[in-house]
Specification:
By secondary structure, the protein is mainly α. The protein has 10 helices and no strands. The chain has one domain. About 2% of the residues have low confidence.
Length: 305
C-alpha cells in the first residue's frame, strides 16, 4: 500500500503548493480511470491563484507604505533643523529655557538619529510647547511640527493596519485554503488507494505497482520545491532576518539612549546637590566670617597697668 502523501503546511509558499497540486491534477487528467477525481483539484488551483494575488497585493501595500517612512522622517528633520536654528538665536533666559524644553536637554543630533522613533514622540509635544512663544516664527514652527508629526503618525498607523491585514490573511483565508487542500488530497488518496485495491470494471487486470504514488510529488525532505521556489524561500528568510536585526538594533539603541538619559539625569542631580552644598558652604563661610568680625569688635582692650 502506498504511503500517505505529505501534508502541505501554511508556511509554504503558494508556488510550492501549486507545484504539488499541479502534479496531482495533470496526472488525474492523464489517466482515464481518474479523470472524474480531477475537478476538486482544478478548483483548488483556481482558488490558489486568487489567494496568491490577494496576498501579493496585501504584501505590496505593506512594502509601499514602509517605503514612505524615510521621506516622512525627512520632513521631521527639516522642521527639527529649522527649530534648532530659530530657537538658538534667542539667548534670553526664556529662549534658552524653551530650547532646553523642546529638545529635552539633549543635543538635536541625538533626537534625530532614529527613523520615526523617539524623535516622532518628542516632536509630537512641540506644538504645545511653542504655542505660548511671543515669537511668530516659533509659533509657525509649532504649526509645521504638528503637520509633519500628524502625517508621520498616520503613516505608522497605516503600516500597522496593513501588517495586521496581511497577518490576518495568513492566519485566516490562507490557513483555511491549505486545510481544504490537505482534506481534498487525503480524500483523493483514499479513492486512489481503493481503486488500486479493487480496480474498476473498465480496468482489465490489476493496476501496476506504484500506481497511487504516481499522483503525488515526493522527495526526501517531504517538500517539493523548484530552484525558483527555494530561492524565494531563502529570500523571505533573509528579509525576515533583516527585519529582526533592525528591530534588535532599535531595541539596543533605545536601551543605550535610555541608559545615557538616566546617567545624564543622575549626573545633573549630583551637580545640583553639589551646587546646593557649595552654596550652603559659601553661606556658612560668610556667616563664620561675620561672627568672627563681631567677636573682634566685642573684645575689651586689656587694662593698662
Amino acid at each position: 500500500m502506498a504511503a500517505a502523501p505529505r501534508t502541505i503546511t501554511a508556511s509554504e509558499s503558494f508556488d510550492t503548493a501549486e507545484g504539488f497540486l499541479e502534479h496531482l491534477d495533470v496526472n488525474l487528467h492523464a489517466c482515464d480511470l481518474t479523470q472524474s477525481l480531477a475537478p476538486p483539484v482544478d478548483q483548488l488551483l483556481t482558488d490558489l491563484a486568487h489567494h496568491r494575488t490577494t496576498r501579493a497585493k496585501l504584501a505590496r501595500i505593506v512594502v509601499a507604505l514602509k517605503a514612505r517612512k524615510i521621506f516622512r522622517d525627512d520632513d521631521l528633520n527639516r522642521v527639527l533643523d529649522a527649530t534648532k536654528v530659530t530657537l538658538s538665536a534667542d539667548t534670553s533666559d526664556a529662549g534658552v529655557a524653551l530650547y532646553k524644553d523642546v529638545f529635552e536637554n539633549k543635543r538635536p543630533v541625538e533626537t534625530r538619529k532614529y527613523v520615526l522613533g523617539p524623535q516622532l514622540t518628542t516632536m509630537t509635544f512641540w506644538p504645545g510647547k511653542m504655542a505660548a512663544s511671543p515669537r511668530p516664527e516659533v509659533k509657525d514652527l509649532g504649526v509645521q511640527a504638528k503637520q509633519v508629526t500628524d502625517a508621520a503618525t498616520a503613516l505608522l498607523n497605516d503600516i500597522g493596519a496593513a501588517e495586521t491585514a496581511l497577518s490576518q490573511f495568513d492566519t485566516g483565508p490562507r490557513v483555511a485554503f491549505i486545510d481544504a487542500c490537505n482534506a481534498a488530497v487525503k480524500l483523493i488518496f483514499g479513492q486512489l488507494s481503493e481503486m488500486e485495491h479493487a480496480p474498476p470494471a473498465a480496468q482489465k487486470g490489476p493496476l501496476p505497482d506504484g500506481f497511487v504514488d504516481r499522483f503525488f510529488l515526493r522527495d526526501s525532505s517531504g517538500k517539493a520545491r523548484t530552484i525558483k521556489e527555494q530561492e524565494e524561500a531563502v529570500g523571505q528568510t533573509k528579509a525576515k532576518l533583516l527585519r529582526q536585526e533592525g528591530q534588535l538594533k532599535e531595541l539596543r539603541d533605545k536601551q543605550a539612549s535610555d541608559q545615557e538619559e538616566k546617567l545624564d539625569k543622575e549626573l545633573k542631580e549630583k551637580k545640583d546637590q553639589m551646587n546646593a552644598a557649595q552654596a550652603d558652604l559659601d553661606k556658612n563661610t560668610r556667616e563664620v566670617a561675620r561672627l568672627k568680625a563681631e567677636l573682634e569688635k566685642a573684645k575689651v582692650p586689656p587694662d593698662e597697668e
